[in-house]
């Protein structure tokens, strides 16, 4: 056994040698890889890389788009003006890295596009054209209630899609299309979309290949080339100089222009090289980069060598992290924490400072790669451009390999990291002897050296036989990622070789609750991710053997069931349920000082301050999120004793988020009211703390979000400067004041106050004195809150509200409210702020609201109910509904028809006194496709037709005629007016109890597809001239036997007939 000093010396020498080899090897490796770049780039285009997550999204990643205004405007014009009754496809073609996705995002978010289309859908296709998967992506945009989640049949999915896009004009973006071999899949995907007969539906597709554009396009393609020299230089400067004040340095300008010219207008190249130059804005560094450029001049229209140059400048530790990402499928959406955990499992992340967590350092690595253009931040995920993915595969080819379905090239003996993608295999139900084929492929792998095994796909059961024996040989395996077939986690029991495993992700919807015992012998395990496993307490008692486990991603019940969890001192997240059992007492938390997030529930089992102190929360310096919960009120302590317990649970001053639920004390804990205890607190959420009376927040200078829910005895509140303030269910709250020196001004974005009936004194600035809510103004300081975008007030007994311009206004159950300044323009003129987009006013019987409504064509949501002098009305994007007991005439004095030009469905219902509709007003509904009239007994057909029909003859596609019991037949004028509806696709007759016949010329409605007849007992036959040949659906309910018989006989293969909710064919 060597002494520790000698071991340390040898380790340091080896480290020096490795770094020297890496440094010397980079230049040799660079030359060798550069020669293979073009070959690899070409071959990558023909590979069928499967997807697990999709990469590109509609969310803008770029803060500014350079040089694409002309192309954007041209595409928008083509999408809006080029619409017809058929579904049109507009392809955008260009090389990889030229900016196709960025341009299409630019189009997607344009105001003209949002105003023109009812639905905007974004789908990333990539190299794997999977009709079922793509249909599911489309449904994600179309359906809110997700009725398709448990459906696997393409037929069922397409039926759901067809139903949910009916009568909606949509724009579908198909980003990054590759597949041109088989047109049948494309036709199959579009089938339910083409059934929607609304004019102007469009598909906008991006692709690198002309052949794909030719296969799918119905319009002339847009061919995208590099940015022009002037715009490209502006973009390149923004990437290279960023905020550096040497932007105008003549030497740097000269070198920069030389480099920029060689980039051929490719935005991705500008991002990559610009990021490289920005790391050192000096003449020497830029000259070195320029000189290296000479070896890359022979590669026309190929930017991979450019990207490779940026990669070469990365430090070795970032090169390792980046190249490792080649294991993930192309178009994968990376979870930042998941990726950092994987890097840590391979020892890629190193940190010399013991006070800094590896996760923090790993996150810095990831942000550095984002900063240098190798990743892009996309909401909560990270994405990699497909050319970057190709680059990662190229530079990692000695150590990383991917087996794609049943296809695989040569796997080098040096490979230590392997991923298997079986998505394509999932689709192929006719593969014979698949296990034998996988056996042959897997035999090429040198399993003894393998450190990573990732399996992407959900039919891993076909692989288990092949993997069982081989995984036992993988004694160096550190990371295993696999789907658990059948939801039984015990399947992985035979796959685990616990010697060196550091990361296990076994994902699936688990049905059998038993953890496999072998897990407890993975003593080096750092991450265990079992997803949404919901087994209750079937956790091995020796789970606490995993003393190196840093992250347990599992259902709360798994956390709750770990025996003596206090031994797992490396854990950083824990949901802990306190029990009166030695192995589950609060003292288990004592030594868990690595915790970053802690949820402690059932705190009613902690009886004293001393017992609470045993948890030693003040020693947990990394703790950022803390949730404390009391659940059983029957076991609650007296208020003073409850306060003592909470005092004993004082956290470290670094805490950022605190949630307390069910606390029984009457006052704040000492540490929460102290100016020095929780100085970093940013989010405070208090709920069901029914005895709490006063909450001082004057020491919380970092607080940004405050939520108080059902604090039944809280009487006063001191509010610092916030981004979000939510007060709900506070029956005794009387006073809300601004903390001294803290102004609630420019930061506030969301203000919600509900069910606070006693709130009558509110001062939000020290410079304002207290005031009575019933006096001249309420919230006077809010006139300065220009950033406030959402205001929601409910069940408040106030008379006047003064607020600034808003985007969202919600006023609910405010019986005394008479005045709201948001409903004023200048002086005393009634009006609405131009910023409003969403309005809800319910049950405000004294409020004066300016009309006609809606106040603007930009209102996307509106709901008015219980307001004097106003009909009940609502807008939900393109649908409008109005109902009123008093309304007799519907014209521009009631509704601002000029602001309803985008409405597609107009519904009038339960208006018993309505006798007239203004044809002039209705003529402004230029997009109207469906008119529904229900329960308006005094509105006769002569009031509707022919004027209303004539004004909307070119757009209306659906008409539900009002139920008129007295109508016997249509007049000749009314029948002629009906024929003017050339676009009519749906027609409904309801509750015409005396109508003797259908319109004689019904057959001439050549666009009609659906005819519905309900409660029309006097109609005994179909028109003599028959039905339109375009008719596809005929539905009857509660009609005469004679009519039902005729309709039954009319059923054909093309015409589906449904009588009393049953199809006859």
TrEMBL record:
The NB-ARC domain, residue ranges: 70-244
Residue intervals of the R13L1/DRL21-like LRR repeat region domain: 586-711
GO molecular function, one term: ADP binding
Domain Disease resistance protein winged helix: 327-392
Record SUPFAM superfamilies: L domain-like, P-loop containing nucleoside triphosphate hydrolases, RNI-like
GO BP terms, alphabetized: defense response
InterPro entries: Apaf_helical (IPR042197), LRR_dom_sf (IPR032675), LRR_R13L1-DRL21 (IPR056789), NB-ARC (IPR002182), P-loop_NTPase (IPR027417), WH-like_DNA-bd_sf (IPR036388), WHD_DRP (IPR058922)
Gene3D superfamilies: Helical domain of apoptotic protease-activating factors, P-loop containing nucleotide triphosphate hydrolases, Ribonuclease Inhibitor, Winged helix-like DNA-binding domain superfamily/Winged helix DNA-binding domain
Keyword Repeat on entry: yes
Entry keywords, A to Z: Leucine-rich repeat, Plant defense, Repeat
Protein origin, superkingdom: Eukaryota
Designated name of the protein: NB-ARC domain-containing protein
Organism: Triticum turgidum subsp. durum (Durum wheat)
């Amino acid at each position: 056994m060597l002494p520790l000093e000698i071991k340390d010396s040898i380790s340091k020498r080896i480290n020096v040698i490795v770094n020297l080899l890496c440094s010397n090897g980079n230049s040799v490796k660079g030359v060798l890889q550069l020669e293979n770049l073009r070959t690899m780039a070409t071959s990558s285009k023909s590979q069928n890389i499967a997807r697990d997550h999709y990469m590109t999204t509609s969310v803008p990643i770029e803060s500014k788009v350079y040089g694409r205004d002309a192309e954007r405007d041209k595409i928008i014009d083509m999408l809006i003006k080029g619409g017809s009754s058929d579904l049109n496809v507009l392809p955008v073609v260009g090389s990889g890295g030229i900016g196709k996705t960025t341009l299409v995002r630019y189009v997607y978010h344009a105001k003209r596009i949002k105003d023109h289309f009812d639905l905007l859908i974004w789908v990333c296709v990539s190299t794997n054209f999977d009709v079922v998967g793509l249909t599911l992506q489309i449904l994600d945009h179309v359906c809110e209630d997700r009725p398709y989640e448990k459906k696997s049949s393409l037929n069922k999915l397409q039926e759901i899609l067809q139903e949910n896009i009916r009568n909606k004009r949509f724009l579908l973006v198909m980003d990054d299309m590759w597949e041109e071999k088989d047109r049948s899949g494309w036709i199959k995907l579009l089938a339910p979309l083409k059934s929607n007969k609304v004019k102007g539906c469009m598909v906008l597709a991006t692709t690198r290949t002309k052949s794909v554009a030719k296969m799918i396009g119905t319009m002339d393609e847009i061919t995208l080339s590099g940015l022009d020299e002037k715009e490209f230089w502006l973009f390149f400067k923004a990437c290279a100089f960023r905020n550096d004040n040497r932007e105008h340095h003549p030497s740097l300008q000269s070198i920069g222009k030389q480099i920029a010219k060689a980039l051929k207008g490719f935005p991705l190249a500008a991002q990559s090289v610009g990021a490289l130059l920005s790391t050192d804005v000096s003449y020497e560094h830029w000259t070195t980069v320029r000189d290296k450029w000479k070896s890359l001049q022979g590669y026309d229209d190929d930017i991979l060598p450019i990207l490779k140059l940026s990669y070469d400048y990365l430090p070795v530790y970032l090169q390792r992290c980046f190249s490792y990402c080649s294991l993930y499928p192309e178009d994968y959406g990376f979870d930042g924490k998941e990726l950092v955990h994987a890097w840590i499992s391979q020892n890629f992340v190193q940190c010399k400072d013991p006070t800094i967590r590896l996760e923090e350092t790993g996150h810095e690595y990831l942000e550095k790669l984002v900063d240098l253009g190798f990743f892009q931040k996309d909401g909560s995920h990270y994405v990699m451009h497909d050319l970057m993915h190709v680059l990662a595969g190229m530079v990692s080819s000695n150590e990383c390999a991917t087996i794609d379905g049943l296809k695989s090239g040569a796997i080098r003996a040096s490979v230590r990291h392997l991923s298997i993608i079986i998505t394509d295999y999932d689709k192929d139900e006719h593969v014979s002897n698949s296990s034998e084929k996988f056996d042959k492929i897997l035999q090429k792998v040198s399993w003894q050296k393998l450190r990573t095994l990732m399996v992407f796909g959900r039919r891993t059961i076909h692989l288990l036989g092949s993997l069982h024996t081989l995984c036992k040989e993988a004694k160096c395996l550190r990371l295993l990622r696999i789907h658990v077939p059948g939801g039984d986690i015990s399947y992985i029991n035979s796959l685990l070789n616990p010697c060196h495993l550091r990361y296990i992700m076994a994902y699936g919807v688990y049905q059998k609750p038993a953890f496999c015992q072998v897990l407890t012998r993975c003593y080096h395990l750092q991450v265990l991710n079992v997803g949404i496993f919901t087994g209750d307490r079937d956790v091995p008692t020796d789970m606490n053997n995993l003393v190196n486990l840093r992250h347990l991603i599992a259902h709360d019940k798994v956390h709750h069931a770990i025996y003596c969890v206090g031994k797992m001192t490396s854990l950083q997240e824990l949901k802990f349920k306190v029990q009166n059992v030695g192995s589950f007492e609060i003292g288990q938390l004592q030594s868990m000082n690595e915790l970053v997030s802690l949820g402690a529930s059932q705190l009613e089992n902690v009886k004293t301050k001393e017992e609470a102190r045993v948890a030693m929360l003040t020693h947990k310096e990394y703790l950022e999120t803390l949730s404390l919960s009391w659940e059983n009120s029957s076991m609650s302590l007296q208020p003073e004793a409850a306060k003592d317990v909470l005092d004993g649970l004082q956290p470290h001053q670094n805490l950022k988020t605190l949630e307390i639920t069910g606390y029984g004390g009457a006052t704040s804990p000492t540490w929460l009211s102290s100016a020095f205890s929780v100085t970093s607190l940013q989010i405070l959420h208090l709920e069901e703390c029914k005895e709490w009376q006063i909450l001082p927040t004057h020491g919380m200078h970092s607080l940004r979000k405050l939520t108080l829910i059902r604090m039944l005895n809280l009487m006063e509140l001191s509010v610092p400067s916030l981004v979000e303030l939510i007060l709900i269910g506070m029956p005794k709250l009387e006073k809300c004041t601004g903390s001294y020196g803290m102004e609630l001004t420019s930061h506030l974005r969301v203000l919600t106050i509900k069910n606070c009936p006693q709130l009558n004194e509110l001062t939000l600035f020290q410079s304002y004195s207290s005031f009575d809510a019933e006096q001249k103004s309420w919230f006077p300081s809010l006139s300065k809150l220009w950033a406030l975008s959402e205001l929601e007030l409910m069940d408040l007994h106030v008379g006047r509200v003064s607020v600034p311009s808003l985007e969202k206004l919600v006023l609910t159950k405010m019986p005394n409210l008479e005045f709201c300044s948001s409903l004023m323009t200048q002086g005393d003129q009634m009006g609405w702020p131009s910023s409003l987009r969403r309005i809800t006013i319910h049950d405000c019987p004294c409020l004066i609201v300016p009309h006609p409504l809606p106040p603007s064509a930009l209102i996307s949501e509106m709901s008015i109910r219980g307001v004097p002098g106003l009909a009940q009305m609502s807008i939900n994007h393109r649908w409008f509904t109005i109902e009123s007991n008093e309304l007799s005439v519907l014209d521009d004095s009631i509704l601002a028809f000029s602001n309803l030009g985008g409405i597609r469905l107009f519904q009038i219902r339960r208006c018993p006194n309505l006798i007239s509709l203004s044809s002039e007003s209705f003529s402004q509904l230029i997009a109207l496709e469906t008119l529904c009239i229900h329960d308006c007994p005094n509105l006769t057909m002569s009031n509707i037709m022919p004027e209303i029909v004539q004004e909307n003859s070119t757009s209306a596609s659906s008409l539900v005629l009002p139920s008129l019991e007295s109508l016997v037949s249509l007049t000749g004028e009314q029948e002629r007016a009906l024929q003017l509806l050339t676009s009519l696709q749906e027609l409904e007759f309801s509750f015409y109890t005396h109508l003797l016949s259908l319109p004689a010329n019904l057959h001439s409605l050549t666009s009609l597809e659906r005819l519905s007849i309900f409660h029309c007992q006097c109609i005994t036959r179909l028109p003599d001239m028959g039905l339109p040949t375009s008719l596809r659906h005929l539905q009857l309910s509660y009609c005469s036997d004679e009519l039902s018989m005729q309709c039954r006989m009319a059923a054909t293969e093309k015409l589906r007939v449904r009588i009393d909710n049953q199809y006859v064919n």
